[in-house]
Write a structure and sequence with these properties.
The chain is an alpha+beta fold. Helix content is 45%, strand content 12%. The chain starts with a helix and ends in an 8-residue tail after the last helix.
Length: 1401
């Protein structure tokens, strides 16, 4: 750094100090955004943060050449603090600043000016404020622990040096807080174990070892411990801190003290909680609840209390005017009373109605006067022992348990972050450059071990809290059950009292009935009175008529002849009276007829309704009254108990949904329990087939019993609505529409879901739309570490309940896989990505690969789209690079590259989906190959370099492109995948490239994978970014840092590759340079056509890694010139393409016949013709036979066998025009003869590999005995006298024959020979000699697959066994060998002597 830069930094620092109140916006160097700094500044002005009246800041310092730490005076003002920290002499080697607060929930004992001055002077990272802001006046304690860091240890880190303050700017900088429990100092406090925290900020200058500590705590506990340690601990004493390394070691010790504090009090606190549980819940487990709630106790408790019920005491104590003492009033008519007396029908007890009611009252109240209860009120004691206050205390304890477990989890997260942080620090450029790590290794190991020990202690405390929490929940359940039991017993008592009152009312009703009878007798008296009235009515009429004036009498009142009939008056009387009588009688008659007709009409209408209602009534079995409800109550209790055990999470992972697994129902519904339900009805037993219920309707039956509609089972059995057709999502079409079936459907829809949880089955979960009420039997949903919540998707680790998991095949003696990945697309606008991904995964599932993520199914629910994928326990490749050091020994290097290179096989499967659509093959283009999308599964060994890579993410940025394959270079549009690892042809770095898609092929993925391999060798993104900054079109582009300049790879890549080669030479690594050669020569070409296909790259990597002890030098390892413009062809193989390469090319074309191949313009077919023409000259007139070793060990090579067989089949078709012949080792007597290559290729592709590997000698012997030896020529006098061979359709043994044996050589563990296979070979040699045939009349061309050491040893023995006697007709070549060498085989001694591991390619 120049003096000018240093001077500028000093000026900036002074300006920053002058604006200390603007902290953190005044910081000179920080990685935070401006808006984040403004937010911190605003939050820092909260008045609850500071308590200036109690200002108390203290420091402990260590200066150079000092033999002790020094404590400062109390710095309670801004001036004192400023003078103390802004020293002109020299900065201390160590400075520890202690800030306190009045309590764990109190404000900081300082002012905002003091704090901002302190933080500005030391340029403390702004994220430390996240911890500072937790110290404020608050109601509840802090329960979240954090870790923050902002290191400046890399080459490209921004510099900020202040030499006058001994600050180099190359520093470690982090902050964290930890939370623990401490016993309260005052025993009268309500909370005896409050949560308390300690926060720490630490910076360490790696060039000179200077440390700064800022420690925040509610009391002086930590300060006292640290000050004591610096006087007593040997590594913390002032005299021990004399170098950057010892200072670093001491800093680890200080942090270890804080870590120990966070774990030390948990055991005592948990003991306290355990005692609290015992104190508040033990009575619930031992109290005599049944005795306390006996009827006698209830009678004694409530007999003297006003319960408000209609009982004897209430009647006895009621006053005469009470409404409960009813009386009937006497008639007020004296005439009425007189008539009753005259009639003689008056009951002498007619006035006794009130007396009888009084008698009822007297009888009911006799002997029931309130008595004094001298027994103890047991129910009152029960209420005291099981009070709601105690239940609240248990709930509060449950909250404390949850809070304690949360705190422990937070502390564990901080400890893990600290360990990861220091592991990255010791690997950083600044640390390795300025520190002697060897001096720190042992202390770092102790530090990491300490963290792990504390983490284990926290796990123990956490598990103990979990166990006690479960006990507490059980006690709460018991406590609640006691309260419910008491309530139920109280209800039963009052129900009994109500029944007693009802019986008394019934008795009173009978008395009232007697009164009614007497009233009826009184009614008879009224009838008698009416009769007397009718008797006197004529006289009344006559007297009324005579008094009307119609008749005129004499004055003396006699009936003499003087009376006069006034006819006019009589006429008027009759004229008025009689019509009125007729009108009245007629009107009454009409009204009577009308009312009768209306009544008849109403009764007819009611009759029709009754008929209709009777027609809609269910069968009589559907309305059977229950006589025994116990089976239903027992099942409901069983369901209640089981739902506590089985709960499924929804997609958010927060809401529990109870369910009952099918296996649990099977265990419960025994024949006895089903019979109890059938017998529970009073009038008629339900007669359903029990076996049918157990086999087909078990969950349906459970739903009906739970909803108390089991009588409706016939509605399900009649229409075959069994378990396979439930749960019901709509009204079944088989049911008629009506109130009964509508109600039944509503009831079933409400209760069915708990008995029909989703069964995770891959064959049924194909974009399946689930009902919103469908229960997902997910036991646990956890966010994956290192994978952020993206806007489009949320990726979680999902654990499925074992009873509902059919995603994978269950194997005996192996645990079933229950953990999967759940990838969720929440928003509708990302639905196309979901559909895109599952379409790609479906195609990949049809042709699976161990190196492509496995797809198990997909479904939709609540508007979210979900994909179920394989869970990989090794994270992704990016995390692997961050957490794992590069392999050092040659064995580790080989193992690492063998593991990682498998990803090429997965990419090959993506590129060749083998899906045929309209006679065109569909290729896949991933378009998003990067370390984050390569997942890792741990291998069987414990080595970190043993893993299985898997390609994932087929929908976030790109998807499998469905491009029509009409040539070898199928094109599709790119989908704007990743930028850093993109290929030149898919780049959108310039503005004119951003308007539309680019056209790319599968070779774009090859370039991306090459960049990943290059980054694997060394991470050098900074140099790539610096190069792109010189290219105007990359200005502001997200492609800055990629491997190309839009045309080809940039020179920085070649430069770094050269430096890697030099480094590898110095450490003896001869494999990584060869990998770099493959990356440069065959993957990072600017021209896509010059890049190798994935299958060809598999072969290249196998050539390097399959024989690590070989001394061959592959052309791939030869360095290429670093100029980007170079585009020379890769070096041609000496003997043409290899067998594997040729097979891979042909398999992508999939020609239907050789005739189609000859017509095709593809360069591969031209190359086949060229090879065939060459071989016709060198090995003419030979017959070719194929023997496939179909043992179980060859199953893993089935794909390679298919391709290699296809290549040799096409080639030998050119060499021989007759039928080609094929045999399998499991049935060597049977030869398959076909003219067409397609049929033979199909036979090999569909054949099963099931033969035992150790029977190869038997198979070879049978082939010789049945197909070779009997038909060998028997030449005499130049003629063949073998009559059997003359009539043989096959050419085998009649003509010179080449037998190609595809095998891996894994026939057993014979360490000396070839597991007996040499014996039939020797026998055949003797037969050939005896008949005078040439040794190559029958030649054996072994094609080796895999790299098993035993297999190689067996085949090498056969290859060399005949050389000693001059009869070598056996040659062994690897499938990656040149195809010419395989066909020529032992016919040429030079070719036979060409070792398969020493061929030059």
């Amino acid at each position: 750094m120049s003096p000018q830069d240093t001077s500028d930094h000093a000026t900036q620092f002074e300006n920053s100090k002058n604006k200390n109140l603007e902290y953190p916006t005044n910081l000179i160097r920080t990685e935070a955004f401006g808006h984040t700094l403004e937010s911190y500044k605003r939050r820092l002005n909260d008045k609850r943060l500071f308590d200036p009246k109690k200002s108390s800041i203290g420091c402990v310092d260590l200066y150079e050449n000092s033999d002790a730490f020094h404590r400062s005076m109390k710095l309670n003002t801004v001036d004192k603090l400023s003078r103390y920290i802004d020293e002109e002499d020299s900065a201390p080697v160590w400075r520890m600043v202690f800030l306190q607060s009045s309590s764990s929930r109190g404000a900081l004992s300082c002012s905002i000016e003091q704090l901002t001055l302190l933080l500005t002077y030391y340029q403390v990272m702004p994220s430390f404020l996240d911890l500072v802001l937790t110290f404020r006046k608050r109601e509840r304690p802090v329960s979240n622990a954090l870790f923050k860091h902002e290191n400046y240890l890399e080459k490209n880190s921004p510099t900020f040096a202040l030499p006058e303050l001994s600050r180099s700017g190359i520093q470690i900088q982090h902050a964290f807080n930890l939370i623990s429990v401490e016993r309260a100092s005052d025993s009268s406090e309500m909370n005896q174990w409050p949560l308390r925290q300690v926060a720490l900020y630490h910076s360490f200058d790696v060039t000179n070892g200077r440390c700064l500590w800022i420690i925040l705590k509610g009391d002086q506990l930590i300060a006292k411990r640290i000050f004591s340690a610096v006087r007593t601990h040997r590594s913390l004493k002032a005299t021990a801190i004399n170098s950057p390394e010892t200072s670093f070691i001491a800093s680890l010790l200080v942090q270890m003290m804080l870590m120990e504090w966070c774990v030390e009090s948990w055991a005592e606190y948990i003991d306290y909680l355990e005692e609290e549980i015992y104190t508040n819940s033990v009575e619930a487990n031992v109290a005599p609840v049944e005795q306390m709630t006996s009827p006698a106790e209830f009678e004694s408790t409530f007999s003297s209390k006003n319960t408000g019920t209609f009982d004897r005491q209430s009647l006895a104590s009621s006053p005469p005017s009470s409404p409960q003492r009813r009386t009937f009033p006497r008639s007020s008519s004296d005439l009425f009373t007189m008539i009753r007396r005259i009639s003689g029908l008056k009951n002498r007890q007619s006035t006794s109605i009130n007396n009888e009611l009084n008698e009822v009252d007297i009888e009911s109240s006799a002997g029931l006067q309130p008595q004094e209860n001298e027994e103890r009120d047991t129910l009152d004691d029960l209420s005291k022992e099981f009070s709601f206050k105690r239940f609240q205390r248990l709930s509060l304890l449950s909250h404390e348990f949850g809070q304690a477990m949360l705190v422990i989890e937070q502390n564990k997260g901080v400890l893990k972050a600290i360990e990861e942080h220091y592991r990255s620090v010791i690997c950083s450029y600044g640390f390795t450059t300025h520190m002697n790590q060897d001096l720190c290794d042992s202390d770092l190991t102790t530090f990491f071990n300490k963290i792990r020990n504390i983490d284990r202690d926290l796990d123990l405390h956490y598990n103990r809290l979990q166990a006690l929490s479960r006990v507490l929940e059980d006690d709460k359940i018991m406590f609640n059950a006691v309260l419910q039991y008491k309530s139920e017993k109280t209800s039963e008592y009052f129900a009994s009292s109500a029944k007693t009152s009802s019986d008394r009312m019934e008795s009173m009703t009978e008395k009232m009935h007697e009164i009614t009878i007497r009233t009826e007798q009184e009614t008879i008296s009224m009838h008698i009175i009416t009769i007397f009235t009718l008797i006197f009515l004529p006289g009344t009429f006559v007297s009324t008529l005579f008094s009307s004036g119609v008749f005129h009498w004499d004055d003396d009142g006699t009936l003499g002849t003087d009376w006069v009939l006034r006819s006019d008056g009589l006429k008027l009387f009759i004229t008025i009276s009689f019509p009125m009588m007729v009108i009245i009688v007629g009107a009454w008659t009409l009204l009577y007829l009308y009312m009768r007709r209306k009544r008849q009409h109403r009764e007819t209408k009611k009759g029709r309704k009754r008929v209709q209602k009777r027609a809609l009534q269910p069968p009589i079995t559907q309305n059977l009254p229950q006589s025994n409800s116990k089976p239903f109550a027992d099942f409901n209790q069983f369901v209640s108990d089981q739902t506590r055990k089985y709960n499924g999470l929804d997609l958010s992972g927060e809401n529990n949904r109870a369910f009952i697994p099918l296996g649990v129902l099977r265990n419960y519904w025994t024949i006895s329990n089903i019979s109890r339900v059938q017998s529970a009805f009073r009038s008629q037993r339900l007669t359903f087939n029990i076996d049918s219920i157990k086999n087909h309707y078990l969950r349906t039956f459970s739903t009906l019993v739970y909803s108390e509609t089991v009588h409706s089972l016939e509605d399900f059995t009649r229409h075959n609505l069994n378990d396979d057709r439930l749960p019901l999502k709509k009204h079944p079409d088989e049911w008629p529409n009506g109130p009964y079936h509508d109600k039944l459907f509503a009831t079933i829809s409400k209760h069915q879901w708990r008995f029909f949880p989703l069964i995770f089955t891959s064959t049924q979960l194909e974009d399946h739309l689930l009902h919103d009420d469908q229960v997902l039997p997910i036991e646990q949903l956890d966010a994956l570490e290192g994978i952020p919540h993206r806007e489009a998707t949320n990726i979680q680790k999902m654990t499925i309940h074992e009873s509902c998991n059919d995603l994978v095949k269950k194997l005996p003696d192996r645990p079933i896989r229950r953990t999967f990945i759940l990838k969720t697309y929440y928003k509708p606008r990302y639905q196309h990505l979901y559909e895109n991904e599952i379409r790609a995964l479906r195609m990949l599932r049809n042709s699976p690969s161990d190196n492509v993520i496995t797809y198990y199914g997909s479904f939709r629910q609540h508007g979210a789209c979900n994909v179920i994928l394989e869970y990989c326990d090794g994270g992704n490749l990016a995390d692997y690079f961050a957490n794992t050091s590069f392999p050092k020994s040659p064995a580790q290097v080989v193992q690492f590259w063998k593991s990682l290179s498998q990803v090429i096989k997965g990419l090959d499967r993506v590129h060749r989906l083998r899906i045929v659509d309209d006679d065109n093959t569909v290729n896949g283009i991933h378009d998003d190959i990067k370390p984050e999308n390569i997942l890792l599964s741990k291998g069987p060994s414990d080595s970190p370099y043993d893993f299985i890579p898997k390609i994932a993410d087929f929908g976030l940025f790109s998807h499998v492109k469905e491009s029509r394959v009409n040539s070898s270079d199928a094109m599709g549009s790119d989908n704007n995948g990743n930028s850093i690892y993109s290929s030149p042809e898919s780049s959108h770095h310039a503005s004119h490239l951003q308007s539309g898609p680019n056209w790319i092929s599968t070779k774009a993925d090859i370039f991306s994978l090459g960049t990943v391999f290059s980054d694997t060798c060394a991470w050098y993104g900074a140099k790539r970014r610096a190069h792109h900054e010189t290219i105007p079109t990359f200005d502001g582009s997200e492609y800055i840092g990629c491997f190309h300049d839009g045309i080809g790879r940039i020179p920085v890549v070649d430069e770094m590759h050269r430096s890697i080669r030099k480094r590898c030479q110095s450490v003896g690594d001869r494999f990584t340079p060869q990998i770099i050669g493959i990356v440069e020569n065959y993957m990072l070409h600017s021209n896509p056509d010059e890049r190798y296909r994935a299958a060809m790259l598999v072969e290249k990597f196998d050539q390097i890694l399959s024989t690590p002890n070989s001394r061959r030098k592959s052309a791939a390892s030869a360095p290429r010139p670093s100029t980007v413009s170079q585009s020379s062809e890769p070096k041609k193989q000496l003997h043409g393409p290899s067998l594997a390469t040729l097979g891979e090319r042909l398999s992508t074309q999939q020609p239907t016949s050789v005739r189609n191949t000859l017509k095709s313009p593809d360069a591969t077919d031209a190359e086949i013709q060229e090879i065939a023409e060459c071989l016709k000259v060198n090995v003419p007139d030979r017959h070719h036979v194929f023997l496939i070793d179909d043992s179980t060990s060859m199953a893993e090579h089935s794909k390679a066998v298919d391709e290699a067989f296809l290549a040799l089949l096409h080639l030998t078709k050119h060499l021989e025009k007759g039928k080609m012949e094929l045999a399998f080792a499991s049935d060597p007597k049977h030869l398959y003869r076909r003219h067409r290559t397609k049929k033979l290729a199909h036979l090999v592709h569909s054949h099963r590999y099931h033969r035992a590997p150790d029977l190869m000698e038997f198979c070879i012997s049978r082939l010789f005995d049945y197909q070779v030896i009997p038909y060998l020529p028997l030449r005499r006098y130049g003629m063949n006298f073998n009559i059997r061979a003359q009539f043989r359709a096959s050419r085998l043994a009649r003509l010179p024959t080449s037998i190609y044996i595809f095998t891996d050589g894994r026939w057993g563990n014979d360490e000396d020979m070839a597991c007996g296979v040499q014996r039939p070979m020797s026998r055949l040699m003797e037969v050939l000699k005896k008949r005078g045939l040439d040794k190559n009349h029958i030649s054996f061309h072994f094609v080796r697959f895999g790299d098993d050491e035993n297999g190689k040893r067996h085949l090498d023995y056969l290859d060399s066994s005949g050389r000693a006697v001059g009869w070598d007709n056996v040659d062994v070549k690897h499938v990656s060998s040149a195809v010419k060498t395989v066909v020529i085989g032992p016919i040429s001694e030079a070719n036979d002597d060409l070792d398969e591991d020493k061929e030059e390619y």
